[in-house]
Amino acid sequence: MEKIQVVEIQDPIYEETYTAHIQKNGDAWIGWIPEVPEVKCEEHTQELLLKTLVHELHEALEAEEEAWDKQIEEDLKAGHLDHLLEKAEENFKAGKYYEIEDLQKLLEK
Q1: Is residue 50 included in any domain, yes or no?
Q2: Residue 71 domain-assigned?
Q3: Residue-wise DSSP of 9-53
Q4: Residues 58 and 38 sit within 8 Å (Cβ to Cβ)
Q5: Contacts of residue 49, Cβ cutoff 8 Å, sequence gap at least 6
Q6: What span, in angstroms and rounded, lies between the C-alpha atoms of 62 and 68?
């Protein structure tokens, strides 16, 4: 088995950079992305491995996003987020809010 190589992979949709670890293992190449443990691949060439890693990473990120969306919907239906809405309404009525433009100016400072 050869030394592990580190390759950065940019996901264009989610605009994040991930670190792929790839390694020649006999006649094949193996690779994984530590930040997304479910992404592990094996291919016959390094080029194909990198393409597969990018594809599998994107699939895993989409699945994670779908699971997150489903959980938020379930939490909303169950009323688990009602307290946040109530607090936001209280703050709004008390004048404790910023117009978007003002908030952007504060964040730019």
Answers
A1: yes
A2: yes
A3: EEETTTTEEEEEEEEEETTEEEEE-TTSTT-EEEESSHHHHHHHH
A4: no
A5: 22, 29, 30, 31, 41, 42, 43
A6: 10
pLDDT for position 14: 79
Please give the pLDDT value at position 12: 80
Query: Rounded distance, CA 39 to CA 6, Å?
Result: 15
Three-point CA angle 40, 23, 54, nearest 5°:
45
Domain hosting 13: range is 5-78
pLDDT along the chain (109 residues), means of 10: 92 88 96 97 97 95 95 94 91 86 83
What distance in Å separates the CA atoms of residue 21 and residue 26, rounded to the nearest whole number?
A: 16
Nearest to 68 by CA among 14, 17, 15: 14
Is 42 part of any domain? yes
pLDDT of residue 34: 97
